[in-house]
Amino acid sequence: MHTAAPILLTPGPLTTSARTRQAMMVDWGSWDERFNQLTASLCEQLLAIINGASSHHCVPLQGSGTFAVEAAIGTLVPRDGKVLVLINGAYGKRVAKICEVLGRRFSTFETAEDQPTTAADVERLLKADPGITHVALIHCETSTGILNPLPEIAEVIARQGKRLIIDAMSSFGALPVDAQKVPFDALIAASGKCLEGVPGMGFVFARKASLAQAAGNAHSLAMDLQDQHAYMAKTGQWRFTPPTHVVAALHEALLQYHEEGGLPARHQRYANNCQTLLAGMATLGIRSFLPEAIQAPIIVTFHAPKDPRYQFKEFYERVKAKGFILYPGKLTQVETFRVGCIGHVTHVDMQAAVDAVAQVLQDMEVLDI
Ligand SMILES: *Cc1c(COP(=O)(O)O)cnc(C)c1O
Fold first, then answer.
1. Which residue has the least CA distance to atom 9 on ligand 1?
2. Interaxial angle between packed helices 262-283 and 347-363, expressed in degrees from 0 to 180 and rounded to the nearest 10
3. Predicted local confidence at residue 133, as pLDDT
4. Does residue 91's CB lie within 6 angstroms of at least one atom of ligand 1?
5. List of residues 6+ apart from 30 with CB closer than 8 A
6. Start and end of every Aminotransferase class V domain (predicted)?
7. Which atom in ligand 1 lies closest to the alpha carbon of residue 138?
8. Residue 3: what pLDDT?
9. 12 Rama class: left (phi>0) / alpha (psi -120 to 50) / beta
10. Residue 145 and residue 334: Cα distance in Å, rounded?
11. Which of 94, 142, 244, 302 fits 28 for a cystine, CB–CB 3.0-4.6 Å?
């Protein structure tokens, strides 16, 4: 039995460093000037990652990533707007659900879970429906790990004079996006993904002009990003009780992000994790669901072994006992499981996870892979 805390190979919450967790050992007051400086510094550093200081505001929001997605749509899409939601997995479907619940008009375009949306598709859809005002895209669709071609899609949307809302939750900080080159109204991410903070807050990079025009759009007080930003700009404080420990942990995680070498280094470590994982699983005969060309180095979906002796629940428990937490599959048609490549882990941990999987399959007498 493995006794140390298991390594989370899941796309959030994920494994954090001891230093990041240690940063939560202080109780901050929300009126504390030093805490307000922490928030301001956080927003400044986050904006720098997308080169967005001149064009966008960073608006942090309490809650998990979905809260920030819902807030971005509710705040930036006017009540008479219409959203084209691009779907190739569960998170795209969630955006459509958000539009439905908020009462924003929307249409959907769905491709198979192993098919990226193309810029040509988006161009055709926008030309066919002039009523569309906004397009919502999932950058890396975490339900499989597929990467959608953001720069090409963003360009088509801008050329058609429409606005783009990007759910970059699982890619921000690891895959590059330059706000001066990729036009968008909002890019949404959260504390507990590639920045390796703890979960509890999201943040939205909102185009300054669009946010200024968004007063009164929101259907909700707590989810109003325009109000959240206006209050913070005026007072330096969060509008409602801030997730103080989460902010402090994210600030500490960002220091480590920069020490490591920023985005290029984070991307490289995750790419190495992903390569080690893919190569190791291939030696066991376990096939990945996506072709490598569209696989983001964030999370990998694997086909489950065909052998009737394989059951995910037992497999999960046995791998967990060896120190690694895997993730169930999220596909409806095929039996799969997922392994995350992100978090405070290296290729050495990934190889150890592969070795644990090999041992467990042997122990379970799973032969037909
Ligand atoms: C994690 C994630 C979210 C947010 O999910 P929460 O459970 O609310 O944190 C949204 N979109 C994508 C693509 C994600 O990976």
1. 65
2. 20
3. 98
4. yes
5. 237, 238, 241, 242, 244
6. 34-302
7. 13
8. 58
9. left
10. 15
11. 244
State the amino acid at position 319 in one-letter form: V
In residues, how long is the chain? 369
Residues of the chain with pLDDT under 70: 1-3
The Cα–Cα gap between 189 and 283 comes to: 34
Closest CA to 139 of 98, 105, 200, 89: 89
Provide the CATH number for the domain around residue 276.
3.90.1150.10
Domain end (from 209, 230, 258) = 258
Calculate how far, in angstroms, residue 264's C-alpha sits from the geometric centre of ligand 1: 23
User: What pLDDT is recorded for position 2?
Assistant: 56
Query: Alpha-carbon distance 287 to 24, whole Å?
Result: 40
Task: Say if strands 336-340 and 299-303 run parallel, antiparallel, or are unpaired.
Answer: antiparallel
Q: 170 and 267 share a domain?
A: no
138 CB under 6 A from ligand 1?
yes
Structure tokens given for 323 = 């120190």
Which of 220-223's residues contact partners 24+ apart within 8 Å by CB, and which partners?
A: 220/71, 220/74, 223/61, 223/67, 223/70, 223/71, 223/74, 223/75
CA distance 364 to 369: 12
User: Across-strand partners of 83?
Assistant: 106, 134
What phi and psi values does residue 137 have, to the nearest 5 degrees?
A: -130, 140
How far is residue 95's CA from residue 106's CA, in Å, rounded to a whole number? Answer: 10
- Ligand 1 centre to CA of 369 (Å) is 31
Q: Which domain holds residue 352?
A: 7-13+262-363
Interval between CA 169 and ligand 1 midpoint (Å): 6
DSSP 8-state symbol, 243: -
Q: If you average pLDDT over every residue of the chain, what do you get?
A: 97
The last residue of a domain, from among 238, 258, 278: 258
Nearest one of 256, 204, 206, 208 to 63, comparing CA atoms: 204
Residues 180 and 277 in one domain: no
What is the pTM for the complete model shown?
0.97
**pLDDT at position 4, please?**
76
Long-range contact pairs involving 25-29 (C-beta distance under 8 Å, separation at least 24):
26/248, 27/244, 28/244, 28/245, 28/247, 28/248
Task: Answer whether the bond into residue 149 is a cis peptide, omega within 30°.
Answer: no
33 alpha carbon – ligand 1 mean position (Å): 31
